[in-house]
Amino acid sequence: MVQSYLTKAIIQKHFMKKIILLFATILFTYSAKSQCAQNSTEVLVLGDSWGAFTWENNSHNINFDKYGLSDKKAFSTGASVSPTSNTDLTHSGVESNNYLTSARKVSILNALNSNPNIKIVHISLGGNDFINNWDTTWTQAQIDTLTQTTLDSITSIINFLRQQKPSLKIFLSTYDYPNFEEVINGSTSHPFYGRWNAMKKPSFYQVNKLLSDFNVALSSYITTAPDLYFVNTLGLMQYYFGQTYNLPYAPFGSYPALTAPLPNGYINYPSPMVAMNTYLMIIKDAFHLSPTGFEYLIGHQVKNYYFEELRNYDITTKGEHLKCGYANANNSFGDSSIIIGNVNNVKHVGLLSFTVPTLNSSKSVGKASIFLKRKGLVGTNPIGSYSFNVEMTADSLGNSSFPDNMDFSASVTATATACNFGSVSGNDYWLRLDLPQSMAQQLTSNTQYQFKVGIVGNNSNANQALLFYSDSTSNNAPFIDIFYTTPLSINDNTLNNTSGLSIYPNPAASDLSVLFTEDFSGSIELVDILGNKLTEVIVNTNSQQVNIKLPNIANGIYFILAKNRNTNKIITEKIVVENK
Q1: How far is CA 544 from the centre of its chain?
Q2: Which stretch of DSSP H or E encloses residue 301?
Q3: Along the chain (580 residues), what's the average pLDDT of each consecutive run of 10 residues?
Q4: pTM of the predicted model, to two decimals?
Q5: Which distant-in-sequence residues (6+ apart) come within 8 Å of 531 by Cβ?
Q6: What sections of 89-191 are H helices per DSSP?
């Protein structure tokens, strides 16, 4: 059984973002010390061998790092080749209509319970439904029936996932064009000849048209379900690799890399052979991409979906070229690049300028993240060796709103060590700098802020600097994400502790029990006073007592949110954690 390359990326746009209703007596205190986020598994990968290959190749995590999201992680189990098990989250050859076995349901539930921060399920299914059944003699009516059956099966899987955790977002992954005819090259002993022959040896155009038509069906499907989206990735391999020699089969032509139109590429061409996987150094795969190909595929999905979704900001705004550039210890300055680090023994600081848009007056800012896109490197990469210092002022640095010779030593109103994320190991990689609450809470509406960003402690390395784009008019522009911390009021379905919830012991040290006066089925979350989810337990059978093991958290006030699936109610209760 093998996989096909159907293109589809459906996203559940509807998401539930409820934060706890805090008591009016709670006072928020902010620490000047930066609290760096820990790694958080937020994506669960399910499906066929395309899902398995991306899991094996670490494709998600590699791309999360490229976008400054190195603390966000994907999780799965399974292998792209045998042996595989019906308990694996990814399984080579599986079709959408036989994916959801009883054993696999248990595996999914275990994965959700073990990784309570999962917010997105990445599903790669549907390809085998076509490749294992279709052939070139099929009528359009037969294709339409298979298309609808496949969509119905995918819908059933989505429904199962949402029953377990209603807040999940669903991402239906994409495929790209295969390359049967060129890869097989007439060899009846090729491992993929049997499947190609069973499909009655379709041409490049015939199999690509099948995928393209399914893409059109997905476009229609998502309009019937407002919480779903998809990203078309057909033609990605053609775009990135190009057909650099004349194809030995019709249409016989060639085209350079980075020229194929996106989406869809050239429907009468296959994915280039160089993009396909290789086994034992000599056997080419007609279906699956190389590790680099899968990295490009997931990278496209991260760019068009995950980068936005995983940031989960409240407000974002681009930097202004007005004061984006650099200044150095020799009082030189410029705006061609943002330079952070040492160049020829001279310390450089990056200059950034952002105007905060209108903020919601009923909420407080508690966090902000600056993103910078790497343009170049001087010497060695400072990431991992040094930390980043951020200085901020609401007034203009130096003598003007433009970079000038006073900027390096200009006084500021706030300074802090930022938490940095992303290896920034290549050009066009993003660096993320998380500002602590002590600095972020000073941001106010419609005010321009100017920042200096430098490396702490790099006093001996003559050449160790990162160069970032300073252009504010392109997708390379620096930007800042802003996050609120003022809790949102829970909707009318929210109940308080008089509704039948009690916690024992309270205060708690390491474990606690949540007791209900009526049957409970749903999810129980532990959140801090800022609304950040710390752990979650999924309850799938009616229970009146649920035991929770507390994560490693500091002493203080926290809240339990119990979301009852039976009654559609949300119950909240305050707890105190006292570890010592």
Answers
A1: 36
A2: helix 291-301
A3: 31 28 26 58 96 96 98 92 79 92 92 91 94 97 97 94 89 94 97 96 97 88 76 95 98 98 97 95 94 98 96 92 86 92 93 94 91 96 92 86 86 93 97 93 93 84 91 89 68 44 85 86 84 84 87 84 82 80
A4: 0.81
A5: 19, 20, 485, 487, 488
A6: 102-114, 127-131, 140-164, 180-184
